[in-house]
Amino acid sequence: MSVSRKSEPVTQPPSDGVAALDRAIAILGAFTASEPSLGLAEIAARTGFYKSTILRICRSLLRGQLLERSDDGRYRVGQAAFRLGTLYQRSVVTADVLLPVMRDLAELSWESVAFYVRAGDVRTCLYRVESKHPIRYTVREGDILPLGAGSGGRVLSAFSGEPGAEYDAIRSAFCWLSVGDRDPETSGISAPVFGPGRALLGAMTLAGPRSRVDEAFLRRMTPPLLAAAARATRAFGNDAHDLDEAAQHAKAKLANE
Q1: What's the CATH code of the domain at 86?
Q2: Of 60, 77, 94, which one is at a domain's C-terminal end?
Q3: 111 alpha-carbon distance from chain centroid
């Protein structure tokens, strides 16, 4: 006597979709703010998928850091999902304010201007305006970089409260210049931008190849960078007198050199 196999009790995916991707989306959708951690049986109950299906898809989500698995075997949303959420949230709010400021700075300097946001223990390039030069340093929107290296990472760390003399100096000057810190062939300078409520929004960075963008060039560009950070901060409804003062101090220091 033949026995028919019961089909998986889930709604069929749309004909124009990809079944595995639809199931992955459903698994991620099972997590909520009140239930951020789920076991295999709980995911199965919420999605209607077989446990074998869930395990197979979760392996891919774990590799992509969209899920994490704790020591007790429970799953939670991973850092890649946090990064995507941060990108979405901030891009919707900030694009109209930041991009015109960044374009003006890039036009003035002829170098690349990027805007970095912190996402956990890393930073992400949210926006980028390319240099007018054919040779430029390569960071793309969405790229993930370390916090502990490069001017952008150090500025984000400093204004997130990182202790230490170096970070005190960054908080005092409202900028940081680095030459060959993250990449031996790249140099740059960064300043913080503050968003609504004077919360740290991100770091604006002017950078380029060391063969062209040396320390002297970056010192000349310090006042315009700080002025750009102040302009963006004011556009978000904040007082930017401290950034303005830092720009004036950098300009006076440059005149006395």
Answers
A1: 3.30.450.40
A2: 77
A3: 20
Decide: 75 and 44 in contact? Cβ < 8 Å: no
The residue range of the domain holding 26 is 19-77
What's this model's pTM, rounded to 2 decimal places? 0.64
Distance, in Å, from the CA atom of 16 to the CA atom of 14, rounded to the nearest integer, reads: 5
**Integer distance in angstroms from the first to the last C-alpha of the chain?**
95
Task: Give yes or no: residues 62 and 168 share one domain.
Answer: no
Cα 199 to chain center, whole Å? 15
Q: Are residues 39 and 123 in the same domain?
A: no
Q: How far is CA 192 from CA 32, 165, 250, 253, in A?
A: 33, 18, 15, 20
Nearest to 196, CA basis, from 237, 254, 144: 237
pLDDT tens sequence across 163-189: 999 999 999 999 999 987 777 778 999
- HEC secondary structure over 101-146: HHHHHHHHHCCEEEEEEEECCEEEEEEEECCCCCCCCCCCCCCEEE
Q: Is residue 56 part of a domain?
A: yes
H or E stretch covering 97: helix 79-109
The CATH number linked to 42 is 1.10.10.10
Q: Are the C-beta atoms of residues 40 and 73 closer than 8 Å to each other?
A: yes
- Check if the beta carbon of residue 160 is closer than 8 Å to that of residue 118: yes
Dist. CA 221–CA 206, nearest whole Å: 8
Number of domains in the chain: 2
Q: Which helix (H) or strand (E) holds 194?
A: strand 186-194
104 within some domain: yes
In order, the DSSP letters of 56-68 are HHHHHHHHTTSEE
Structure confidence by residue, pLDDT tens digits, 22-66? 999 999 999 987 788 999 999 999 999 999 999 999 999 999 999
Largest Cα separation within the chain, whole Å, is 96
